[in-house]
Amino acid sequence: MSGRRVAITGIGVTAPGGVGTKAFWDLLSHGRTATRAISTFDASGFRSRVAAEIDFDPEQSGLSPQQVRRMDRAAQLAVVSAREAVSDSGLEFVDLDPHRTGVTIGSAVGATMGLDQEYRVVSDGGRLELVDHRYATKHLYDHFVPSSFSAEVAWAVGAEGPVSVVSTGCTSGIDSVGHAVELIREGTADVVVAGATDAPISPITLACFDAIKATTPRDDDPATASRPFDRSRNGFVLGEGAAVFVLEELGAALRRGAHVYAEVAGYASRCNAFHMTGLRPDGAEMAEAIRVALDEARVDPTDVDYVNAHGSGTKQNDRHETAAFKRALGEHARRTPVSSIKSMVGHSLGAIGSIEIAASALAMEYGVVPPTANLRTPDPECDLDYVPITAREHRTDTVLSVGSGFGGFQSAIVLARPDRRTP
Amino acid sequence: MTTGVTTSAKPKVVVTGIGAAAPNGVGTHDYWSATRVGRNAIGRVTRFDPTPYPARLAGEITGFTAADHLPSRLLPQTDRMTRIALAAADWALTDAKADPASFDAYEMGVITASSSGGFEFGQNELRKLWSMGSQHVSAYQSFAWFYAVNSGQISIRNGMKGPSGVVVSDQAGGLDALAQARRQIRKGTPLILSGSIDAPICPWGWVAQLAGGRLSTVEDPERAFVPFDPDAAGHVPGEGGAILVMEDAERAVERGARAYGELAGYGATFDPAPGSGREPGLRRAAELAMADAGVAADEVDVVFADAAGVPELDRVEAEVITGLFGPRGVPVTAPKTMIGRLCSGAAPLDVATALLAIEEGLIPPTTNTSPDPGLGLDLVLHQPRPASVRTALVLARGHGGFNSAVVVRGTD
Amino acid sequence: MPEQRFTVDDLTRILTEGAGADETVDLSGDILDTDFEELGYESLALLETCGLIEREYGITLDDDTVTEHRTPRAMVEAVNARLSATV
């Protein structure tokens, strides 16, 4: 099975700013931000009260009342995105061998929202230490173990091959796609519906990020609260969303005349083995992940046309990441546009890696690099070309997208045109 | 054109170290000593008062004092499952005589499975949130409960910077993690710590597991979890699992390591959507694993069953086993009857047990069950069975339709 | 106000409760001017500690308390300054 290559032939995105890939790209290419004051619950007691929420009505997006009842919001976002990806791919899933079709879904925090709400009820507002099972929803087990997310997607698309959830914190969305690529390359599956989802905008998540001061307290100006690479950045903005792809063996995709957005040409993940939340400023492990991913893609660092950054907007991340780009790409880092869409759609934890892969594929598709919104005061420590404020027309044949997360995980993925010349 | 190019088989991946933690024994030696003779460890829940709940039995780990194994700095920031996992990782490395300092940091990775993360840690913080307010939530809640925490903490403690990961597919995930470790070793990382430890025995985890509808409400510890028995009425949950050192076989030989055996085959499938009426995927998973290992049915010396303890699921599994091996065609065992089902920790522990069975030439028994003879299984009951065991098939299923199978084979 | 005074003993008690103690460090020794990093406490441990101090003493510490106050002496002074401000 050596020599098998993997193509993205379908994209589905449910992200802040609008449901569907079209609305997502419209937001990015116009440099609009979807960050706002939290509206879904009373967040007045929290330090950080801004988030990137989706105006999402699951029934309007095609889910049945029973699906809505049994699924956590994160599962709903995943299934809606998977359906869009399948439809976009033009692939008739009913004609596929279900045994050769897989699903990988990334998620950092699973059914946090459902668990938070359920705990409140079974504990009667935190009063009962011995929580009362008689008040638990029948579907609590599906919140307990988030593999229910990939099960829901598998049922939605009729997959019966390898099915799993990948949960490596905030790199889950890259690692899930990377895992799917491995499954197709090695011949375990021919088609994998792969992506990631998270819906973490919930009191327990806000509380723990407040405690480590990772989220921005810029509550008076929600629209510009997420400021990656800007000197005034002071934390990330929590987001939610999902992006799911149809990945196919490239040869089969070309034979059926599929539209190929990009080849997933290289992927690697490394650990910093340093700290659960902290980053060393040198970016060495992320640079190593980038180096290995480019190597696997047989792409020279100077061939990278665009870097889709993790760019969370915390002090330490943006400095760490800038160092990693310089270390991995050398002088070319200074000549390459780098941008963070978290400035617009926030940081949806495990989902964002896949949402950023979607942005990267669309950047190739439209020849437009999305901007880093809200970047108005350069930081001397972040001195690359971050495409401030306005999207830029820029032909992109090769994209590098990276992620970094709690636990020390550092991941890199390379998208490229399948007809590129390789050395 | 291809002169000089040999199509070599995929590199072998072996297990060189085992760190086991189970209700009937903490540490590989104690676990195996108890398991080989069928020592039960199911009892009434002691970690909280189970009186209000319809299910009151569990397999709890006793005699594990985290402070004896871990620096005090780690304790406030770790859930019970992470503490046990860190200790088990240490034991596995010691068993393998693998000193992380003697490897390049990028030559070692950590790939674990998880079911529900650090659920007890999460419970305690949720309680603070809702009873006292958001300012009372710990800074450690930002990672201590999440699914990736064991891989992250193990990699930090041991300085492992190579490919790492976390998979979640309920109980089947434990095998999926081992397979992912093998995949990364074959791609060039010489050593991966893999496996899983789970420990969600707390009121909140109990209520969540009750909602799954598969917990046994039988009061008698010897009759509560009796897979393949006509009286099967669900399972008893437990805590623990195993962390394994997995290595590229050639590299292991080079450094003089002893190998318990090889992870020779793996397959994973997903059941058809509910209501389709089509055959579940467990048989296909077993067939894929056996084909991957290149073993025929008559080469399999023992099957470690998933042993759901739910009549319909037991019937499906018995049909798979008799379908592949014939009626009473292969010894079958389910040591998890002694300790309960350990979420994602169960299957890595079964793999460890299979390797220990191969090493000693002894199949550990299934306890408590009086199987329905109509199922046609040769279940190893009550007493251990001496046997020349070279190849074992381990089955695992997860809630929702996940099926995974692994073939382990002793090294010659 | 004197009965509210926050001492280095209070700090080590809360540090140990919230973040444990490095086995190689003697917290009962003269640590007032030792950098927290050398005492085995990184920023996460200090954030947890600050949270515990805030709750026990009913005060709010500045966001940059952890980065600005690198020794027990500086931290104790910062807490006492906040305690006197609230009396």
UniProtKB/TrEMBL annotation, chain A:
Keywords: Acyltransferase, Transferase. One of its GO terms (cellular component) is cytosol. Transmembrane segments: none annotated. GO terms for biological process: fatty acid elongation. GO terms for molecular function: 3-oxoacyl-[acyl-carrier-protein] synthase activity. It holds the Pfam family Ketoacyl-synt_C. Gene3D superfamilies: 3.40.47.10. Residues 3-417 form the Ketosynthase family 3 (KS3) domain. Belongs to the thiolase-like superfamily. Beta-ketoacyl-ACP synthases family. This is Polyketide beta-ketoacyl synthase WhiE-KS.
Automatic annotation (TrEMBL), chain B:
Residues 10-410 form the Ketosynthase family 3 (KS3) domain. InterPro entries: Beta-ketoacyl_synthase, Ketoacyl_synth_C, Ketoacyl_synth_N, PKS_Beta-ketoAc_synthase_dom, Thiolase-like. Keywords: Acyltransferase, Transferase. Pfam families: ketoacyl-synt, Ketoacyl-synt_C. It comes from the Bacteria. GO terms for biological process: fatty acid biosynthetic process. One of its GO terms (molecular function) is 3-oxoacyl-[acyl-carrier-protein] synthase activity. The keyword Transferase applies. Belongs to the thiolase-like superfamily. Beta-ketoacyl-ACP synthases family. This is Polyketide chain length factor WhiE-CLF. It comes from Actinokineospora spheciospongiae.
TrEMBL record, chain C:
Pfam families: PP-binding (PF00550). Coiled coil: none annotated. The keyword Phosphoprotein applies. The keyword Phosphoprotein applies. GO terms for molecular function: phosphopantetheine binding. Transmembrane segments: none annotated. It comes from the Bacteria. Residues 5-83 form the Carrier domain. Keywords: Phosphopantetheine, Phosphoprotein. This is Acyl carrier protein. It comes from Actinokineospora spheciospongiae.
